[in-house]
Each structure stands twice: as structure tokens, then as C-alpha cells.
Design goal:
The chain is built from 12 helices and no strands. The chain has helices spanning about 1-25, 30-50, 55-65, 75-80, 90-115, 115-120, 125-150, 175-190, 195-205, 210-225, 230-240, 250-255.
Amino acid sequence: MAIGAILTAALLGTAALTLGVGVIASRHDLRTLTLLGAALMAATGLAFANVGGIALIAVVACLGRINPATGDLGVLVPLEHHCWRGAANEERTRVFARYGLIGALSTAAGALAAAAPEFLVRLGIAPPDAFKILFYAYAGLGAVCVLLCRRLPHLRPDVGPAQPAPGAPLGPSRGIVYRLATLFSLDAFAGGFVAQSLLALWLFEKFHLSIATASVLFFWTGILGALSYPAAARLSRHIGLVTPWCSPIFRRVFFSSSRCSRPN
């Protein structure tokens, strides 16, 4: 129950921070927000390495930037996506594919690095200290992200103080976006029952796998999943993102037209 509460707090905090960034991003320099997100990553690693007690850990999980479900979650994701608004339509799918590929490969590498505490224990380091070292390494990666983000140009929002505020956000696509968001939220709700952290716990309890064995398993599943991104980009050039032969139910619910459109 305690583990479930911590994971729930982490996911709820991630969702709240992401929504908050979406609200304020149009009024602030995106470079500054990106720097703050990277600094929060470093602070999260330091906090996890030094706090004790379930309540404090849950608070850090809620306010911090450790994602128990992996994947494209976090406060930096909408900021990164916003930077691609100027990409040409024919290039956007490939840009997203490269972004997803790099993210998936990095996630796989992180899963493999999760075996580090077990090797540190074999070197004579106490298990709690071995896990603290891993969190300190996470904080170090956050510090590296801060240094890299400092090299980004200043990215001003689309609407400045002297310009009129835009009309209805999303325009005619509002209904489609809301219906797709509802579909994706149902998928995310189901996926929350099998978050990678809970899956790892189940493997430990059911099959008594070591951390090193589980990390290798998640590494290879991550590598195989990463290969789907370039494959999807290649397929989209031949059949489009939403094909004309898609199901009538999908077409009627999400596009309300006689033919499926091909979004850019």
C-alpha cells in the first residue's frame, strides 16, 4: 500500500506540474522554464537521497521529477514539443520519431543503470548507501541538463505583452483534441495498473529476480520498443498518419466526416 501511495503521488504530481507549465508557458521565456525543470530534476535526486519516512518520500515524489511509469511524462515534455512548432509539416513526423527514439534509448540505458546498486553492494557498500549513490547520480544528470539548457537560445512565447491574446485555443480542432485526449486518458488509466515500477516489484515478489536481472529485462524491452519509432515514421510516409481505410467507428467518433483526414 505504501509503494502504491508513493507511485500515485508521483504520477499526480507529474500531471499537476505538467498542467501548470502548460498554463504559464505562454507568458514566460521557455528557456527559463526549461532551466527550472532541469534544476527540479537535480533537486529531486538530492532529496530522495537524504529524506526518510514514507510521508516525506511521498511529498518529494509528488513535487519532484522522478517518473515511475517511464515514457514521455514530465514538465519538460510540453516545452520540448513547443520548440518544434516551426518544423515543416513533412518533417514533423520524423522529428517526433527521432525525439521518441532518443528518449526510448535513454530510458533503456537508465533501466540498465538501475543494476548499479547490486554491483556496489558486491563491492562492500551497504544497500541503503548504494541506492543513495544512484540518486546522487540522478541529481548529477540533472545538473548536466542545467548546463546544457543554459546553452539554449531565449524562446519567447508566441503572444507578447503588446499583442492581443489569441481567440479560442485549438480553433476548429478543439473537439477532436478533447475526444482524443479522452481516449488517451482511458489508455493511460489502464496502463497505470502496470506501471514499470509495479511490474518490477511483481517480478521481485513472484520470481525473486535480482535488480540486475530485472534491469537487463527492461533494457532489452526498451531497445525493442525504441525501434518502433523509426518504423512508424517510415510507415507514415507510405500510408499516412490516419489512413482512409480506418474503421468507421473511429472516423465517426473522432472526425465526424465521411473520410478520415490525414493530420500533419
